[in-house]
Amino acid sequence: MITDIFCKIINGEIPAEVVYQDDHVWVIKDIAPQAPVHFLIIPVKHFTGLDDVAEHDEALLGKLFRVAHDMAKKQNLDKGYRLVVNEGEHGGKLVPHLHIHLLGGKNLK
Ligand SMILES: [Zn+2]
């Protein structure tokens, strides 16, 4: 049984500030934002990390980037933004469910 916080959010067990959702991708606000805009782009399908991603998942991963870009446009991040994937312990991954951080709204240099 998979019990990470993102699966619980998607299953309706834990509330979150949902920015966008469809059958494949959810976008929520990070509870500890590191920038004026800090969203998490989350696939509904559970991947613990990139080790779990198979060739047939490539379209879904591509969609994560497209949704991230759509969110950035909707937030008027015209001057740019940052997408981050933290992988594994040394990568600083906190939730064992693959996700992309979208950060923007200030100069992140
Ligand atoms: Zn999960």
Summarize the structure.
It comes from Candidatus Yanofskybacteria bacterium RIFCSPHIGHO2_01_FULL_41_21. With 109 residues, this protein is of the alpha+beta class.
Describe this structure in words.
This protein has two helices and five strands. The protein is globular, with a radius of gyration of 13 Å. It has a single domain, classed as HIT family, subunit A (2-Layer Sandwich). It is of the alpha+beta class and 109 residues long. The model has no long low-confidence stretch (mean pLDDT 96). Zinc ion is lined by residues 2, 4, 6-7, 46, 97. Zinc ion binds next to helix 1. Pfam families: HIT (PF01230). GO terms for molecular function: catalytic activity. It comes from Candidatus Yanofskybacteria bacterium RIFCSPHIGHO2_01_FULL_41_21. This is Histidine triad nucleotide-binding protein.
Fill in the keyword field for this structure:
single chain, 109 residues, alpha+beta, five-stranded antiparallel β-sheet, binds zinc ion, HIT-like_sf
Protein topology:
Elements: H1 5-10, E1 18-21, E2 25-29, E3 37-43, H2 58-74, E4 81-84, E5 100-104
Antiparallel strand pairs: 1-2, 2-3, 3-5, 4-5
Bound molecules: zinc ion (ZN).
Zinc ion (ZN) binds at residues 2, 4, 6-7, 46, 97.
